[in-house]
Design goal:
Number of helices: 15
Distance between the termini: 15 Å
Radius of gyration: 21 Å
Low-confidence stretches: 1-30
Number of strands: 2
Largest sheet: 2 strands, antiparallel
Helix content: 55-70%
Strand content: under 5%
Structural class: mainly alpha
Oligomer: single chain
Shape: globular
Length: about 375
């Protein structure tokens, strides 16, 4: 559980320290280390490292997508995948036989693209959340977006709603997620201001309430609905289709394009609320805008893929440890690394236990939970406790 520290009254931990010292200790503070505004510029060492990391992530993502497209119960050689893609793009190549063409373009590629969009959305949302809350242990689920979306989906399944056909569960999850984060934000406001501590505590209460609602729906559901609810909550991309990709694409693209525009303001906010205000940042407006972006990215991801945890926590933290706390690289880098992690996770989920398929949410939790425990112990050891 994230621990609130930045209430606007505490002095920033990195003040009075050299940029080199702040960057060296990134990844282990009780709050995100202040980023040096303008650090990691194109000509500096940080800029070169960021470029190398970006190139490595892009190459890894391309390689994983290629392997994922050819791997499965119906194996398609990599050369055939490339030839089919070239043929579709009008660059030569050759079409595959009818079955292989259908498996590749109607089953595997929609799944890969959906994994890319969902992973990028969750990774970017995690970086924004950690910047907004000034805490490296924050993630989108803190303010109840994931739990709220789950309530909408579970309600649609348990009540047998079908007013939008196959889209009913997705639309209910998306609407419920946005409604939940709006309620958390409004309940947290007091005197025209929203404190980080109040937001987090309200999020905890809303998460608990959402869990109780889900339990009630499960209690009154029949056995078939219980199975459907259970598998949805475990998280999966098995139902990926091109229409689902098109459904999540506008929200994901909007969030991913807007988020980097706030990188410099998040760097200034990492100095602390009071210094950020003195530097001309409207902290309240910045917080509201970024919470809306996080809600857009997370609700869209949860609506089509179920509850997938720890991507938003793990990915930004690893990148911060590798390249420092500057948000100019951290935000797009987290989106790219989130896509890499989820494409790899989905490939593992559908190949490790063939012919069965492991739940994707379970896999990410199995990997993310030990990392979270390690992070807690490492932070506590370096800081001497949380108090």
């Amino acid at each position: 559980m994230p621990l609130p520290h930045d209430t606007g009254t505490t002095a920033p931990t990195g003040q009075g320290r050299s940029p080199q010292a702040a960057g060296h200790s990134a990844g282990a503070p009780t709050r995100t280390e202040p980023a040096e505004p303008g650090a990691g510029g194109p000509g500096g060492r940080g800029g070169r490292r960021a470029l190398l990391l970006t190139a490595a992530l892009v190459a890894t993502l391309f390689l994983l997508a290629l392997i994922s497209a050819g791997t499965g119960a119906y194996r398609i050689p990599t050369a055939d995948v490339l030839a089919s893609a070239q043929h579709r793009l009008g660059l030569g190549g050759a079409p595959l036989d009818r079955v292989a063409e259908s498996v590749l373009w109607n089953v595997r590629l929609p799944r890969i693209v959906l994994a890319l969009l969902v992973g990028a959305g969750l990774g970017c949302a995690g970086a924004l959340m950690q910047g907004v809350f000034g805490n490296p242990l924050a993630e989108p689920g803190v303010i109840g977006i994931s739990a709220g979306a789950a309530v909408g989906a579970v309600a649609a399944i348990a009540l047998g709603l079908g007013f939008l056909g196959n889209w009913t569960v997705t639309v209910c999850a998306f609407g419920s997620g946005l409604a939940t984060v709006s309620a958390v934000y409004l309940l947290s406001r007091n005197g025209g201001k929203t404190e980080v501590v109040t937001l987090i505590l309200t999020g905890i209460a809303v998460n608990a309430f959402a869990g109780a609602l889900i339990g009630l729906f499960v209690f009154f559901a029949d056995s078939g609905q219980v199975n459907q609810i259970t598998f949805w909550q475990l998280g999966s991309l098995a139902q990926a289709t091109w229409p689902k990709v098109l459904a999540v694409l506008p929200c994901a693209l909007a969030g991913l394009l807007i988020a980097p525009c706030y990188a410099r303001r998040l760097d200034l906010l990492s100095l602390g609320e009071r210094p950020a205000r003195h530097l001309g940042i409207d902290v309240e407006r910045l917080r509201l805008a970024l919470i809306l972006v996080v809600a857009l990215l997370t609700a869209a991801a949860v609506a089509v893929a179920g509850v997938i945890t720890f991507i938003g926590l793990l990915v930004p933290h690893l990148l911060r440890m590798t390249n420092g706390p500057g948000h100019r690289f951290l935000i797009p880098g987290s989106a790219l690394a989130g896509a890499v992690v989820l494409v790899a996770g989905d490939l593992a989920a559908r190949t490790l236990a063939q012919p069965a398929e492991l739940p994707l949410g379970v896999l990410t939790a199995l990997i993310g939970s030990p990392f979270f425990f390690w992070l807690l112990r490492r932070t506590r050891r370096r800081q001497g406790g949380w108090a």
